[in-house]
From TrEMBL:
Transmembrane segments: none
This protein's UniProt keywords: Oxidoreductase
Name of the protein in question: NAD(P)/FAD-dependent oxidoreductase
Gene3D superfamilies: FAD/NAD(P)-binding domain
Lineage: Bacteria, Bacillati, Actinomycetota, Actinomycetes, Kitasatosporales
Superkingdom field: Bacteria
Length: 357
């Protein structure tokens, strides 16, 4: 077993932000703290995003603390642009991310330490910073008949880009940002598209300003304070009306049907007798927090979520969760990294953040 002060699980925006602040606080990467990530390359979940999600199509990527992304070609896939940026970042700050290293479980260890069981061995740590995002836990709802569908079913997490849908009749399920983006690009090549969502989508006019951002974050914050599972950002912010979505709406691409009642062998069907034949069903139904490795610590509340006090799990002050709930955005992840390290430093009895650089 290797003893360290802090194990950071996940090297996405949240994990790297924490690592940056740990280093600034005087903790040595690789000795006092380790960062473990099971993905093959730098970039967090961005490395897996589909090629047509180009850098100019992301909603707003906040730079990691201490280093700007700089000029980037907006037409390049965000997976490449952000992957390269994260690589430069890890090198510049000598963060020494261990990858690919999977963290299987975290449980109570000896002497007040947490036992982190990973594919490269066991760590005994005083503090755990879990920054594992949501990409590894796609949410795929169950509907009757789903297993009998003779066509192609896939989730956003495996979306290959629009070309694969050329000439097909496609049903897209889900009213979030991913669902609308998939639809708009698939509609250009598919034989036919159908959009189904559980709720009537809410379209938002104008910019999503700072005040709206703060209000949205506050709503999600309140949920995790109560131990409820965090909700999706779109359920709080609504979908943006911009030139692209306006055009798609005018062309009928974003005309939505209510959720179907069952999947058939050849499509989807509603109890009122309506049927849509389909070759593919794309489930753009979102993601859940990837926190299975924390199960042995029993942090969940009866409401199904992990109750949080700031970035700390209410049931265990040694456990911080970053990128969870209100910090599940690039700016939120940045702030959470800083706030968590302030707390961690206090728990470890070290000098405050910023005292050592
Ligand atoms: C399609 C899409 C587009 C988005 N666009 C934007 C945007 O434009 N702007 C924005 O602010 N936000 C956006 N988001 C939200 C975005 O995911 C967050 O802002 C941010 O990138 C998440 O960072 P993170 O560090 O929390 O998670 P991630 O980037 O998911 O990083 C988590 C890391 O943890 C690792 N990991 C997970 N489980 C384990 C384990 N058990 N053991 C070891 N390693 C593990 C993963 O390999 C991964 O590298 C988008 C999300 C999606 C799905």
């Amino acid at each position: 077993m290797t003893a360290v002060d802090v194990v950071v699980v996940g090297a996405g925006q949240a994990g790297l932000s924490a690592a940056y602040h740990l280093r600034r606080a005087g903790l040595r990467p690789g000795t006092d703290f380790v960062v473990l990530d099971h993905a093959p390359r730098a970039g967090g979940a961005w490395q897996f995003r589909w090629p047509s999600l180009t850098y100019d199509r992301v909603h707003g990527m906040h730079a990691l603390p201490g280093m700007e992304l700089g000029e980037a070609d907006g037409g390049r896939p965000s997976s490449e642009v952000i992957g390269e940026y994260f690589t430069r970042y890890e090198e510049a700050f000598g963060l020494r991310v261990h990858r690919p290293v999977h963290v299987e479980a975290v449980r109570e260890g000896d002497g007040g330490r947490l036992r982190v069981e990973s594919s490269e061995g066991v760590y005994g740590t005083r503090v755990l910073v879990s920054a594992t995002g949501t990409w590894d836990r796609p949410f795929w709802p169950r509907y009757p008949g789903q297993d009998r569908f003779g066509g192609w079913q896939l989730h956003t997490a495996r979306y290959p880009g629009p070309e694969a849908f050329a000439g097909l009749r496609v049903v897209v399920v889900g009213g979030g940002a991913s669902g609308t983006q998939h639809l708009m690009e698939i509609a250009e090549v598919a034989a036919e598209t159908t959009w189904v969502t559980r709720r009537e989508p809410v379209w938002r006019e104008g910019d999503f300003g700072e005040a709206e951002g703060r209000a949205a974050v506050a709503l999600v914050e309140e949920r995790v304070r109560q131990g409820l599972p965090p909700m999706s950002v779109v359920s709080v912010t609504g979908l943006p009306l911009n030139e692209r979505t306006r055009r798609a709406r005018a062309e009928g691409v974003l005309e939505r049907l209510p959720m179907f009642d069952r999947v058939t062998e050849t499509g989807v069907a509603w109890d009122d007798g309506r049927v849509v034949e389909a070759d593919a069903i794309l489930w753009a139904t979102g993601f859940r927090a990837a926190v299975d490795h924390l199960a042995p610590l029993r942090l969940r509340e009866p409401g199904g979520g992990i109750r949080m006090v700031g970035t700390r799990a209410a049931r265990d002050e040694r456990v911080h969760l970053l990128g969870y709930g209100p910090s599940a955005s690039t700016i939120g992840a940045n702030r959470a990294g800083r706030a968590a390290v302030r707390d961690v430093v206090r728990l470890l009895g070290r000098a405050p953040v910023g005292a050592a650089t």
